[in-house]
Amino acid sequence: MGREIELKLDLSEDAASRLAQWDGLPEREDVAHLRATYFDTPDAQLARKGLSLRIRQSGRRKVQTVKGDGSAAGGLFARQEWERPVRSHMPVLDAQTPVQEALGDAVDQIEPLFETDVERTRWLIREGEAQVEVALDRGAVRAGAREAALCEVELELVAGAPAALFAIARRIDGEVPVRPAVLSKAERGYLLRGEMADVVKAEPVALDPAMSIRAAFLTIAGACLRHYRRNEALLLVHYEERALHQARVAVRRLRSALTLFKPVLLEADVARFQQELRWLAGMLGEARDLDVLHGRLADDAQAAIGQARAQSHARVREWLESARVRGLLLDIAEWLALGAGCGGAADEPVADFAAGRLQKLHKRVAKGGDDLAQLPPDTRHKVRKDAKKLRYGSEFFAGLYSAKKPRKAHGAYVGALEKLQDKLGDLNDLATAPSLFARYHLAEDTPLGLKSEKQLLRKAEKAHDALTEAPRFWR
Known about the structure:
The protein is an alpha+beta fold. It has helices at residues 13-19, 45-48, 99-103, 163-175, 185-193, 213-237, 241-260, 267-296, 299-304, 306-320, 323-337, 350-368, 377-396, 404-439, 453-469; strands at residues 2-10, 30-40, 51-58, 61-68, 71-73, 76-85, 111-127, 130-143, 146-159, 179-180.
């Protein structure tokens, strides 16, 4: 069994062609045609257990590889790996790999599910004291009648420290645009077998009470980056308003994670990333505001903002393609890969830390939302933002409360939070409508399809009372 550490980067086919000619690569290269078949049970039991099984053929040589689920922070994959030569196109499943133990009797159901077919060009380069293999893969993933293009760079650490991978990645990005990849080839194949999505929601975060605070933060922040990158990848193909919304949600979730874990992070790191993430969310905000406004307006008013909305969508593409966004993603990925600079207190178990942070946020929302009807709109908006942080924190830490009673309380609590967020969101839309109407030359009396402020305040107060009375699942 070995352990691989590699940084995966996504790039376009045009960028790949330019990269292959980059003078930063040595003249000597190795080109191979690689065809890999991936195996699992029909219901993907191996994938659910965090394992992938493939047989890769290059020329006449066949190699079977089992990869275990390891840490994957923004493109840096560190995974256990079991490799062996095989003679046939069917896997050898014995005690030398974890597959048989993982599947039990279901091991007899193993069958080929999808394949990858790529041309791999490899170079060996040095970065200081480190040695890195650069592999450019260009080809396709195929599952049944479906096919998707595959174009990525893998930087695998042969010797030295992982920081070398990011130094090389930045030099590559200075030549051609690249972004941290968050999907393995196996994941791409499984996605191709399922329903093709035009938006990706946040996935559950796998935490357990035995985790350290550090491990929990790295898992949560990595999940946020993965959430963002998957929706960003969709937006780079074509604009989809739900994907834009989820990209902004991912940014907000990451900012909330930085706030929640601030006591164990370096203040300079938190300030730096909060500033850049706030900028990114703001750059995407105009398009989101126009999408929401468009959905609330009647047909004639929708037409009046059509041009402004189309222009905002085009700007989203420009911003996402900017060097500033790509650099931010690489910076976050490296920061997470190298441990995020967590202090000594981060080695403590996460359970008590999580309870304390959730309790503090709960008190802030409970106190801040007292007598909502008397609060000015900007103060209500602050309560709304705190409620979002509390909801994201509750979702992040859900895995720590998996027993039946706290799990039930968690569901009720998050449900109450969602209702409060919805009502405060409607109030915020009502409060910001005049400035949006003025900006886009809409009549002041343009109908928004919302209830009156008085009705919304009554519902918001009711939702706030329900939240403050809901049992706290972390107790």
